[in-house]
Recover the amino acids of this structure.
């Protein structure tokens, strides 16, 4: 009888211990799941723009970006009233062009050239975009990953066009034929536009970036600073 009692007691202890450890294991899993859930909820609740972290515009004390934020104009440059008016028009034209591309998938410009512009072939465009994209990627600290044709394309600034395609060329474009020169307007990470001046030795050759800058920088460089 005593032997039967001891066997029964042993079985009871084993069953009880098993249930205890199962309960503890289930409880641990529950606690772990709840902890993961809490962490997930806290991460989801994080404000993407915390109130104590200011944006670049707020650091400058501006509620809205300044109207000419996309103008890439060299500081302290002397601009004529005509320059100022054209810079504003170019800025508005670029913003309109970006919107039209997003909505309709096309690009264009309301600013017409005042000089004859060389016609580019499909192969020319392919070569130009290849060079422009490579330049943007090489300077990824200033340019986004090239993807949007609404924010890069042939410049519509008539001042640059008049410099490139003038009968007499000087500075870095001296000796280039008209069909071997082009200026490409590209939007930078800061929202401003800059111009890439591209040239090639002859048709069919690779395009090279000769210079970069706004019209005032390019004007000075092309004219040898005179």
């Amino acid at each position: 009888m005593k032997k039967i009692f001891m066997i029964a007691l042993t079985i009871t202890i084993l069953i009880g211990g098993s249930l205890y450890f199962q309960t503890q294991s289930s409880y641990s899993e529950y606690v772990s799941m709840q902890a993961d859930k809490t962490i997930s909820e806290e991460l989801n609740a994080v404000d993407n723009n915390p109130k104590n972290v200011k944006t670049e515009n707020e650091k400058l004390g501006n509620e809205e970006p300044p109207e000419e934020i996309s103008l890439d104009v060299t500081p302290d440059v002397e601009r004529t009233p005509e320059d100022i008016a054209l810079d504003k028009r170019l800025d508005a034209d670029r913003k309109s062009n970006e919107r039209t591309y997003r909505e309709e998938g096309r690009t264009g410009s309301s600013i017409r050239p005042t000089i004859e512009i060389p016609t580019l072939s499909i192969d020319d465009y392919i070569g130009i975009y290849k060079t422009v994209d490579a330049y943007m990627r090489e300077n990824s600290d200033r340019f986004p990953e090239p993807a949007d044709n609404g924010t890069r394309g042939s410049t519509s600034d008539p001042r640059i066009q008049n410099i490139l395609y003038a009968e007499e060329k000087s500075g870095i474009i001296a000796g280039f034929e008209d069909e071997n020169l082009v200026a490409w307007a590209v939007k930078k990470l800061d929202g401003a536009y800059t111009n890439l001046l591209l040239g090639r030795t002859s048709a069919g050759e690779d395009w090279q970036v000769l210079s970069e800058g706004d019209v005032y920088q390019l004007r000075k460089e092309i004219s040898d600073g005179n």
